[in-house]
Design brief:
This protein is an alpha+beta fold. The chain is 35% helix and 16% strand. It has helices at residues 13-17, 20-31, 68-76, 98-101, 123-134, 160-176, 203-206, 211-227, 239-243; strands at 59-65, 81-89, 109-116, 142-143, 146-147, 153-157, 186-189, 194-195. Helix 6 links the parallel strand 6 (153-157) and strand 7 (186-189). It starts with 12 loop residues before the first helix and ends with a helix.
Amino acid sequence: MRIFEEIKGKPLRLALAVGTAALIGAAAVLTGHAPVIAAEEAVVIPAPALDEKPSSSLEKAVFAGGCFWGVQGVFQHVKGVASAVSGYSGGDAATAHYQVVGSGTTGHAESVEVTYDPAKVTYGQLLHVYFSVAHNPTQLNYQGPDHGTQYRSTIFFASDEQKKVAADYIAQLDKAKVYSEPIVTTLEALEAFYPAEDYHQDYLTLNPKQPYIVYNDLPKIENLKQIFPNLYSEKPVLVSEAKS
């Protein structure tokens, strides 16, 4: 089975990097059983001691943590999230295209713009999910099989308050030593967010049997459900539904 042909737009790095991981995922699809192990394990961590001030209007947060398929998929299942869009941040508009970003030379990171209702889910709670199940914040310039600065762990803060809450939480987690390695997540001022190509949107939901998704991303959804039952929404908020 030519499993890598299914990964539309993904370069050949996956054929070399995923290796056994993709084969396990493919076997899971063929047998109907979930993989025994996941690419990245979730970590149960304390909630932020500091959170944003209450607000009555929708707000936005931008997170980067590896391939945006999985990060988008996670936040689409969080209650209070109105939308989660895959895209690019960190570079300029001229280079905000998948094949160019994949070179690792644009300054962009694959990112997800989360629009949320602070009355239902706070910025701190989104950070809690981000650091616990959405990605591994100790991996420098890579996530699982995906390597390059475009896969860096970054919080693009849109305000001084977001910056402070995120910085305090990183310091809190480092002090608590909840990870075996130091957190390498960077904080970068949000200059702009550029939505990714349509075929990247809702990718996890639309391709649940694709080996990369089975192995790397579906376990994140299950971890969200198990670790954050009060935040988990069975029905994801999809970009395609918002456009219809």
